[in-house]
Amino acid sequence: MNIFRLLGDLSHLLAIIILLLKIWKTRSCAGISGKSQILFAIVYTTRYLDLFTTFISAYNTFMKIIFIATSLATVFLMYVKFKATYDHNHDTFRIEFLILPAFVLALLINHELSPVEVLWTFSIYLESVAILPQLFLVSKTGEAESITSHYLFALGSYRGLYLFNWIYRYYAEDHYDLIAIVAGLVQTVLYCDFFYLYITKVLKGKKLQLPA
Amino acid sequence: NRYTIVKDEL
Prior knowledge:
A: 212 residues, mainly alpha, two-stranded antiparallel ribbon, globular, B: 10 residues
């Protein structure tokens, strides 16, 4: 464990808490893409199957359970409890266009052609693009509430911090994993445009509004 | 071994 990874994990946890609190306090999931949340739930359930086979640390097990549970809880809140507030008219991204290519790519490019390894690889590929329906929703409505922006910033920072973690591990532990690194790079790049708007607008107290 | 090293990440 190094500081970049710890900060990355905490940032990820913060993003999830912000989102759940926003939905719970406002009793509404307006402006949030249910499609992205479904993708994240698929990402965590397929990646953390090793919970049943490998024990790494109490921290690792605890975080994995939290990520699976909170992603399922978010989907439940959006599609069941606060279904009436869900913005389904704008949330029209076709997630099969992300799921299927991620799965095919995982079958083609992986470290080992075994079920658990392919599912792990699939989850890494899918995570890198899972935010696209959310970014699509924001671009369709042309704006995002501040709280949604904070959520996106925390979520984007998480993989960005992991990039520094991988650079650190490359030098300190002589370890690297190209699948995770390339996917993490793609994931972080997808947030760049949003990061720019967040820093130039949201941090100055303005609402995130896209140019017409 | 990649299995023990990378799988410790989240």
